[in-house]
Write a structure and sequence with these properties.
The chain is mainly alpha-helical. It contains four helices and no strands. The longest helix is centred in the first third of the chain and has 49 residues.
Length: 146
């Protein structure tokens, strides 16, 4: 819960003894534990009141399901009605992006397609890097891209 290690726990106990003293420390521990118990009881009562107000349709409602990660895990990933796990496992995104990068940069490699010819209609060749423009020359305009 709090992720406190043994050394940190010892340091907290020593610090508590130094601050409160050995005579007041037991009373402080009782007060803190009583307060925590009341907070837990208040929380449980509030949850029960909410469940009672929601009615019998929500008898299986859990407040932990409202956390976004739990909600997605329960309703999207566990059911997998659309076969998302199969699609996700069958698609190697990194390999696909490497192939696209090879084509764009004109590198030949396994699975890389040959460089594309110039675009039809005399548009700019997007596979090759554009050269520098002469002073006063306008960059190529592709009406389909705008």
């Amino acid at each position: 819960m709090l992720d406190i290690g043994p050394l940190e726990l010892v340091a907290l106990v020593v610090l508590a003894v130094l601050i409160f003293g050995p005579d007041k420390l037991p009373q402080m521990i009782q007060d803190v534990s009583r307060t925590l118990r009341r907070i837990r009881q208040f929380s449980e009562n509030a949850k029960e009141d909410i469940r009672a107000e929601l009615g019998p349709e929500f008898k299986d409602f859990e407040f932990e399901d409202l956390h976004p990660k739990t909600f997605v895990r329960k309703h999207v990933l566990d059911k997998d009605e659309l076969g998302l796990k199969e699609i996700r496992n069958g698609f190697d995104f990194r390999a696909e992006m490497d192939d696209v990068g090879d084509v764009v940069h004109g590198r030949g490699g396994e699975g890389a397609a040959p460089a594309a010819p110039a675009a039809p209609g005399g548009g700019p060749d997007l596979v090759k890097k554009p050269g520098t423009l002469a002073p006063g020359e306008r960059p190529p305009f592709d009406s389909d891209a705008t």
